[in-house]
Amino acid sequence: MKKLFVGPWVGEFGVELLRWHSYARSVALEGRWEEVVVATYPDRFYLYEDFATKFVPYLPPTRETEGRACKGHRYNNIHREFIDPEGGDVWLSPFGKLEDWRRLKEQMDRRLSFANLAARGVEVAEGFDLLLHARTTTKRGQRRKNWPQECWREVVRAFGGEFRIASIGSRSGAAHIEGT
């Protein structure tokens, strides 16, 4: 039996949404897998439901990870419970050596396959022209990625009230920008 075990992804949701799950989808939809097992946060199963045959809830001990290697996370090898690499099963993983990650990243850049979540009945907020995610994470080593609040306010002002703009994101990881 050829199984594909995807994940777990423990990094940022944005990277999972815009890269990881779309790459996993393209690999899963190759059609050579009898079973596709996905390990991720339980509230993210919907990203994979169009191709996964089984879900494994994965709750890392912390969300305080850093960089592509998810420094600070200790992986417990959960994939070993579900696949047999000697039997031809494959573990599609963000973990591993830097060289492996570079190869994987290169493949992700070439093979993204996005799902239309709205077509699956996922509710999409109406009434806005633009959505802004003003990142404010305090995760270790990630603060440098946050853009200053004043810059976000300038973006909103630049649209001159022409568009309906909403701030999106979790309360702990994003800011509400004035004028949205």
Task: Based on the model shown, name its key terms.
180 residues; alpha/beta; four-stranded parallel sheet; two-stranded parallel ribbon; 3 helices; elongated
Number of helical runs?
Answer: 3
Mean pLDDT: 81
**What is the percent of helical residues?**
10-25%
Biggest pleated sheet: 4 strands, parallel
| Low-confidence parts | none
Query: SS-based structural class?
Result: alpha/beta
Shape: elongated
How far is the first residue's CA from the last residue's CA? 52 Å
Percentage beta strand = 15-25%
Strand order of the largest sheet: 3-2-1-4
Reading the helices and strands in chain order gives EHEEEHEEHEE
| Global Rg | 18 Å
How many β strands by DSSP? 8
Topology:
Layout lengths: L2 E4 L6 H16 L6 E6 L13 E4 L32 E3 L5 H13 L19 E3 L1 E2 L13 H10 L6 E3 L6 E2 L5
Parallel strand pairs: 1-2, 1-4, 2-3, 5-7
Antiparallel strand pairs: 6-8
